[in-house]
Amino acid sequence: MRPEILAPVGSMEALNAALAAGCDAVYFGLPSFGARAFANNFDLETTKEVIERCHLCGVKIYITMNTILYEDEMEDAYNMAKMVHSFGVDALIIQDLGFIHLLHHRLPNLVLHASTQLSVSNPYQIEQLKKLGVQRVVLARECTKEEIQACVDTGIEVEVFVHGALCICYSGQCYFSSVHYGRSGNRGMCAQPCRMKYTLYEDGNKVDTHGEYVLSPKDLSLIDEVNTLADMGVCSLKIEGRMKSAPYVYESVSQVKKVLENMERNVEDKQNLRVTFNREYTVGHMYRASGKELMNSKTCNHQGIEIGKVVKVNKNKICIQLSQDLHQNDGIRFEKENLGCHVNFMYDKKQKLISFMPKNNTVLIEGPVGVHVGSIVRKTMDSELNKTIEKEIRTSNRQSKVNAIVTCSAVGKPMVMEVYKDSTSVCVSTEIDSVQALKRATDEETLNKQFSKTKDSWASFDHIEYHLGKDIYFPISVMNQLRRDALEKMKEACLKQEPLVEKEYSYIPQESKTSFDLFEINSMNQKVDDSSCYVSEMFNSNQILEKSNIKSVDGFVNAHLGKGKIVDSLNVSNSYSVAAILEMGYESCVISDECDKYQVEKIMKAFSSRYHFDAPVYKTLYQKRRLMTMKHCPVNTALKDGKRMNCGLCHHHRYELEGLDGKRVFLLGDKDCHMRLYDVNIMDEIENRKDYESYGIKHFRFVFTDENQEEVKTAFRAYNR
């Protein structure tokens, strides 16, 4: 079966573009609880209208409620989910495990999709999520082709990103923006520190990184590979871009559709897509792209397409030798200076004002001051393409196809129209009976002409079967009214919702107790006594419990939903999330660092009140916050080949990144070569231990990264006072 094309919608213009281009489903956010807080999200009234409109033309609606949720937000989030469920939303895309758990138990008919923010990449993680009622998983963009296939083989619906921006960090595992800029990516407010400039230092010495955007990936584009994904059994091809323009949505959807229909994209197609938005393209982790194949260290901006070079400058008059056509109102950018403008005034060689200049000519434009001879010129907005797309959208009317049976057995009988589509059918009849035809009888030709007048309707007739008596006659107005009545009644039938099923929350978790503190270490010299419980994702040892990384499943402690007893790194931020962890069979979990002291207290009180025992959780008291976990390595890319094979540089040298604001992070890879970024500042809450214990927390977690033995001992002494 052909996979659906899933389009991003951040505005009504983008929705119109997606529908006109031929999408099968769209996804968008609400004013709250979505991972794109700055998109032009729809309010609830508009959401209801959009759902009805899309359902009438056979397009599914998925709503993103994919942020982590705090305890005092759960009720509002639940009520919002219940509301859109009553509107007929086809599924919710969710990150928060507690929210998934709550909805599964209270709204059993609501379809739940696990967001890419849950960074799912293997079958075991999927099997765990199935226990919470998840019916589809949006895979991590770090998945290889083989890993995608393994996930598909679990039998769950699998959704894969095929075009758009990449996050360099595993989604849901990035705290860079939260820690350094007070804007949580897990709360939909990412400041995009990955798109900023950085200097790399090795043991205090600057390293040439061949470009300053060392954390900024190219855009993903697997459009030419969508049939491969279809053959693998992927059910949904997802396009990123809820903050992108309507032309971007139109071009990306229409080109995915074109390839799925076994047509090749031509040069013009590819150029049109690039000019709507690109940071250069990569086939991404599906085909194991790494280093320079994955990253664009030169710029983080929209690249558009190259259209020429500056050959002469006189103040703000800029002469360009064109390699591509240029129109008035196009948007351009001068690459060297990173300056841009709209082409408002352009002139030919005779200084005559013009609106178009074909390629292989020189053109004079009025542009920004500061442009130099030799600068490459890039088109970042094609005004003619936008006009063409706007016309396509304006003249498009996405309709459903319905069938009908029309009957009038004899003079003196009404005309009856039965309309049907799939398993839905309705029946209407004329208010008057037919009369004897004096001249021309009402025949199939006459009826077809009137019944085809559906241009402004939600549906059109694909096939009509007629059973007409001899010499019957109806006025034209009666035929038209029959058509309108039939389609209106069919519309009501198609939009009719099943009664909402809501259950009381009755889940009772089995009591579990944490029995020891956790001390996570990166080297053996950080193990300072034999009585504490040490864990590590850096090495295996008889004396050290293993912690699995974000993709593996074996370990006593899991950075994801692995086979161990304790879950770390999945943003447990409310009491229902703790219950979800227990429902999947784990003993305890680590409370998210996104929670402040007030929120931790709320979690503990709510859990104890609801389940009548203390939540079996860990609170981290000491660490240098992990900001990112990446499959990319800026160190290997700068100093070797970017392939991350047989390297080990980060274990023999100290590497740091410094931003333009002077803030620093240090880099340390794990044993499986996932690069981890850490804040250089210590988060020390040891003094709050007594308060946390009063909330019901019995045991705590410490994380040691680059600390020497004496620094570890100092933290131990402070804790044991």
TrEMBL record:
Keywords: Coiled coil. Residues 253-280 form a coiled coil. The keyword Metal-binding does not apply. Pfam families: DUF3656, Peptidase_U32. The keyword Coiled coil applies. Residues 379-494 form the Peptidase U32 collagenase domain. This is U32 family peptidase. It comes from Holdemanella porci. The lineage of its organism: Bacteria, Bacillati, Bacillota, Erysipelotrichia, Erysipelotrichales.
